[in-house]
Structure formats: C-alpha cells, structure tokens
Amino acid sequence: xxxxxxxxxxxxxxxxxxxxxxxxxxxxxxxxxxxxxxxxxxxxxxxxxxxxxxxxxxxxxxxxxxxxxxxxxxxxxxxxxxxxxxxxxxxxxxxxxxxxxxxxxxxxxxxxxxxxxxxxxxxxxxxxxxxxxxxxxxxxxxxxxxxxxxxxxxxxxxxxxxxxxxxxxxxxxxxxxxxxxxxxxxxxxxxxxxxxxxxxxxxxxxxxxxxx
Length: 212
Known about the structure:
The protein is built from four helices and six strands; from the N terminus they run βααβββαβαβ.
C-alpha cells in the first residue's frame, strides 16, 4: 500500500482509532534492509521537495514554476512552518525514498481541555521503485505515533476512494460528522485536481501519493 507541524498539546483526549505502530527516528521491524523511517533533517528538505515535484509530474500535473524555484520555495516554506508541519522520511541508506507530513492545527480551548489540537495527514508518497514493500503503511503508522505523542484529539486524511481500504487497515475510520466545503483558493497540489491527484482527489498509496 505504498506511494500513497507539530506543536505538542497537553490535556488532549481521543484520537483516530487503531494501533499506531511506527516509531519515528528508528528503523522499524520488518522493513527492508537499510531502510529507516524518521523525522526529516534540515539538509534533507531539498530531497523532500524533489519528491513533491516528482509526485506532480507522475500524475501528469503542470507545474506553475521551474523545478529550481519550487525546490527553493519548498525548503523555505518547510523551515518557516516547522512548528505546525512535521515531516517524516523513508531513507534507504542516505537516499530519501518517501515522505509523509502531519499538519497540526490548534483548536479552540475548552473548559474541559484548555490545550487542544488535531492533525491532518498530508503528502504520503513513496518513489515508484520502492513501492509494494509496506513503506507507505509504515509512514502512516509513524505519523499516528507522532499524533499520539503530541496528544492530538484526532487525525484526518483526505483520501481517494482507492486509498480508503489502506487507511482503514492503519486505524482510520469514516466519520459522518466530518464535512467539507470548497474554499476560495485554487488548489494545485498533486495534478490538476484539488487535493493531490487526478480528478481532484489524492492518489492511493498504490499509485504514488495520498493526502492533500
């Protein structure tokens, strides 16, 4: 099921159901030899940006800028938003072969829980040559572990219909109360769609990426 920001918050309760088995910062049991899942380091952000660029090209997207300009912009954006967007990478040796992001949003305080936050899974991607080895699932598990450590109330993902079974296998469940409406911006993530993939939906883990 491959290819498909975080500020810790105290006093949270509840999270997406399921077991978070990933361990960011360590080699996960059962991964192929030499493969590690951990949080990205500053010197790896350019490689992460390159994955995002390749994701768009793979899904026949049309970039609105040059590759060099995008990589420079992406690295700057990642540094500026490190407090709210946490990036995990999959490495084989020193090569970045996959990525996943956890975007954290602070929620309005409640008398029962003054410090509240929730998360959103974004940009889960594994390079084509490394798919069908369980790496996408390891990324999802590792993101859920980050969410658990941060005490997030819940974690959401905008998934394509093809990716729904994969996310269900890793603890996500559908909610009839989680609704959405279009905003005023022109989303360009992924390809020509609005949320990371063809036709306006993120790609499934098996086809290259998932999450907006």
